[in-house]
Design brief:
The complex is a heterodimer of chains A (509) and B (231). By secondary structure, chain A is of the alpha+beta class. Helix content of chain A is 54%, strand content 12%. In chain A, the strands form three sheets. A five-stranded mixed sheet of chain A has the order 6-8-9-11-10. Chain A is elongated and about 150 Å long. Chain B folds into two domains: 7-124, Response regulator (Rossmann fold), CATH 3.40.50; 134-229, Arc Repressor Mutant, subunit A (Orthogonal Bundle). In chain B, the strands form three sheets. In chain B, strands 2-1-3-4-5 form a five-stranded parallel sheet, with helices on both faces. In chain B, strands 6-7-8-9 form a four-stranded antiparallel sheet, covered by helices on one side. In chain B, strands 10-12-11 form a three-stranded antiparallel sheet. In chain B, strand 7 and strand 8 form a beta hairpin. Chain B starts with 6 loop residues before the first strand and ends with a strand. The chains are: A alpha+beta (509), B alpha/beta (231). At the A-B interface, helix 8, strand 5, helix 9 and helix 10 of A face helix 8 of B.
């Protein structure tokens, strides 16, 4: 018997004593039945305040005292009037009934309070799990919550996400204690909690709870209590197991999501590979055919070919190999954009600089299209990766050259707006067909007007790469409706650490 | 040019590329020693005393930057490094280690010959000289001795910083100069990371000295590497 239980019995005896005192003091004014009522009241009070044991003892004790002191003949346990037996029985039944009832109510209240605590813990856990972005993060969150709620240290071991379900695959080697390893194996094989505080492998210093998905054991949770001497109360075990079960179902969802995502990426990359292959076989084979043909004519027909014809063939070889170089560069850029390997090295610079490089690089091909640039002197420096932004200009300009008749102008302008710099590359061609404003940014998309067999034909990657690069800079790129032709706009946010101001300079004049 | 044609040392592992470079250079009256590895190249550099070295950065037996460093320990012979697109870091590092210029694959014959010519010219200056002192191309005329700059016959007014930047480019006319080298020369080594200074001043030079500053013909940007004054 513990100290608290003893105390409760003491209280019960005290209350019966008090009732006896009151009854003795008021004896001249009380009927015997009133005294019985007084004792009943005392028993009810005890049943309400304490457990069943003290209440039962109190009901027996009160009947004894009542009989001894208040039922004639007084001060003996003898009873002359048999009617009093009925009183005793009623008293006993009422007292026991009361103690049973109040005891049950108290238990229910306690259970409700415990349930509320568990519900609150489950609620905060589910809220944090919902906000997690990966399985690893979920595991960390669940371990922290269970450690806090269970007053110990929780460790989650999951089997491989592919789900071979082999019980050995949770990485038990990482667990030092032999007893815990034994308990863990039991938990995995028998799918019940084992170890500390249970009937399976109780000598382990940790509680092992299997983490069950709807179909399999997905891992285990090992819970090391702060103090192994503690008994595992039903309530504490219920909290730990409930949170572990909740975490397990969340892990299962996360694993499913990750698996779906992987599958989606695989399908997508499979689709890309197929498109890439068909594009490659066509776009690489065509120029290769021309190169091979021209080169073999040059070799075999050295004696017969006129100087003009020789020159023609050499030019074909040069043009076609440049086309292949461009295509391969585009493919490599595409791969970098796709795989997230795009490294953006931003440096503050005048937009004029990457634009100047792009214009120079396209010099030969731009002879057919006059270029008008309008960059105001007040245009701020922009934080961009010069090589990438140069590529954006090149792709947009190549697009404009490809889709507009010779001698139509291309205009490039830029202006600051709301913490961004907006850049526009506009042409005066036939524009983009209605409804294709978004699809043109897709991989391998070619508008119907672009002839893929013409030497100037694009790879269908240019705009996709532009979008990848601009997005990596935190900006947007879109097709602006334009009555004259196509106008592509992109934005560059002016964010990041401000450039150091230029040192002042005395101007000699 | 001297009576004996200059000797070019070629360090390039790809046979096709070596064949193209060797044939082109021989056709333009250079003598060529072809090597296919860093080991062989370093041995020939020491034994044959070439006047110019063409070094591929992607050799199988040794890192190209390492080879540059080792060559620079023993010789001042101009080095032109050859690299693939997307290796801007390597190019800059090679240039900062003492290489004179670079070529990005694929490149054409005119580009190759121009680089070789400029590199040979710079190496022919007497040791200790700071490079060229005058420059003339198209509209632009610069005399570093008299500190005079003319554009289309008219004197151009430059700020002291603009002039310092122009002078640094003129001394290296035709050659690429890395951002770091220019920043150190004009602003000092504390400013080696402030590339936007350089870009802003380069823009100002273009606005004062180029016909169309948005389509520069003289002050070229070598993206990710530096600048080149076209001679």
């Amino acid at each position: 018997m513990t100290r608290t239980t003893l105390k409760e019995y003491g209280w019960a005896i005290g209350i019966i004593g008090a009732a006896t005192g009151i009854a003795l003091a008021l004896r001249p004014y009380l009927q015997t039945i009133d005294v019985a009522m007084l004792y009943l009241l005392a028993v009810v009070v005890i049943a309400y305040r304490h457990r069943r044991g003290p209440a039962l003892m109190a009901s027996v004790l009160s009947i004894a005292v009542f009989d001894y002191g208040f039922v004639p003949p007084f001060y003996t346990f003898n009873v002359h009037n048999t009617a009093f037996f009925l009183t005793f029985v009623v008293m006993l039944v009422v007292a026991m009934g009361m103690s049973e009832l109040t005891g049950r109510i108290r238990e229910q209240a306690e259970e409700a309070a415990e349930g509320e605590q568990l519900a609150a813990a489950q609620y905060t856990l589910s809220r944090e799990l919902a906000a997690a972005s990966s399985l690893d993060e979920e595991v960390a969150i669940a371990a922290r919550h269970i450690s806090e709620a269970g007053e110990g240290e929780a460790l989650m071991l999951l089997s491989d996400p592919a789900g071979s379900g082999q019980p050995g695959n949770v990485g038990l080697d990482a667990v030092d204690s032999v007893t815990v390893r034994v308990a863990a194996r039991m938990a995995l094989e028998q799918r019940v909690s084992a170890g500390w505080g249970t009937t399976h492998g109780a000598e382990a210093e940790a509680l092992v709870v299997p983490l069950m998905s709807s179909t399999r054991v997905m891992g285990i949770m090992i819970f090391y209590p702060h103090s192994v001497e503690d008994l595992l109360s039903t309530q504490r075990r219920r909290v730990i197991e409930a949170l572990a079960a909740q975490a397990a179902s969340s892990f299962e969802r996360a694993q499913l999501t990750e698996r779906h995502e992987r599958a989606r990426v695989e399908v997508e990359s499979e689709r890309l590979r197929t498109a890439l292959l068909s594009s490659l076989s066509h776009d690489l084979r065509t120029p290769l055919g021309s190169i091979e043909g021209a080169a073999s004519s040059l070799l075999q027909g050295s004696g017969f070919l006129s100087p003009e014809a020789r020159r023609d063939m050499a030019e074909t070889i040069l043009e076609e190999s440049r086309r292949m170089t461009r295509l391969i560069a585009n493919l490599l850029d595409m791969v970098r954009v796709e795989t997230g390997a795009l490294m953006v090295r931003k440096e503050w610079q005048p937009l004029e600089e990457p634009l100047g490089v792009a214009l120079l690089r396209l010099d030969e091909r731009l002879t057919s299209h006059p270029v008008k640039t309008r960059l105001p002197d007040s245009l701020p420096l922009v934080p961009v990766d010069e090589l990438l932004i140069e590529q954006v200009f090149i792709n947009l300009l190549e697009n404009a050259i490809r889709h507009t008749p010779p001698d139509t102008p291309i205009s490039i302008s830029a202006w600051p707006e709301d913490g961004e710099v907006l850049v526009e590359v506009a042409d005066e061609g036939e524009g983009v067909p209605e409804g294709e404003e978004e699809t043109i940014f897709r991989k391998f998309h070619r508008t119907s007007s672009a002839d893929r067999t013409s030497p100037a034909g694009g790879s269908g990657l240019g705009l996709t790469i532009c979008r990848g690069i601009i997005t990596a800079h935190g900006g947007r790129i879109w097709l602006e409706r334009n009555e004259k032709g196509a106008a592509f706009r992109f934005s560059i946010p002016l964010d990041g650490p401000e450039p150091r101001p230029l040192p002042a300079e005395v101007v000699e004049d | 040019m001297t009576t004996a044609s200059p000797l070019v040392l070629l360090i390039e592992d790809e046979p096709q590329m070596r064949r193209f470079l060797g044939a082109t250079l021989r056709a333009h009256e250079y003598q060529v020693v072809e090597t296919a590895s860093a080991r062989e190249g370093l041995a020939q550099a020491a034994g044959r005393n070439p006047e110019i070295i063409l070094l591929d950065l992607g050799l199988p037996d040794r890192d190209g930057l390492d080879v540059t460093r080792e060559l620079r320990r023993s010789t001042r012979t101009p080095i032109i490094v050859i690299s693939a697109r997307g290796q801007e870091r390597d190019k800059v590092n090679a240039l900062d280690l003492g290489a004179d210029d670079y070529l990005t694959k694929p490149f054409g014959v005119p580009e190759l010959l121009a680089r070789v010519r400029v590199a040979l010219r710079h190496s022919s200056f007497a040791t200790g000289s700071n490079g060229e002192t005058s420059f003339e191309n198209g509209d632009l005329k610069v005399d570093l001795v008299r500190r005079q700059v003319f554009r289309a016959g008219e004197p151009a007014h430059l700020t002291p910083t603009e002039y310092k930047l122009l002078a640094a480019l003129v001394r290296n006319a035709g050659r690429v100069v890395t951002q770091r080298q220019l920043l150190q020369e004009v602003w000092g080594s504390n400013y080696a990371e402030q590339s936007h200074y350089l870009r802003v001043y380069m823009g100002q030079l273009r606005h004062k000295l180029e016909r169309d500053p948005t389509r520069p013909r003289l002050f070229l940007t070598e993206p990710g590497v530096g600048y080149r004054l076209v001679d």
